[in-house]
Amino acid sequence: MISKKNVSLKAFNTFGLEAKAGSFYNTRKREDLLEALKTIRSDNQKLTILGGGSNILLTRDIEGAVIKNSIPGKEILEETADFVKVKFGAGENWHECVLYALQNDWGGIENLSLIPGTMGAAPMQNIGAYGVEICNVFVELTALNIQTLQWEIFSKRDCNFGYRESVFKNTKKGQYIIVDVTLKLTKVNHTIDYSYGAISDVLKSEGIDKPTIQDVSNAVIQIRKSKLPDPKDIGNAGSFFKNPTIDKIDYEGLKAEFSSIPGYELPEDKVKVPAAWLIEQCGWKGTTKNKVGVHKNQALVLVNHGGGTGNELWELALEIQKSVADKFGIDLHPEVNII
Question: Cβ-count burial of 6 within 10 angstroms (0-12 exposed, 13-18 middle, 19+ buried)?
Answer without folding.
Answer: exposed
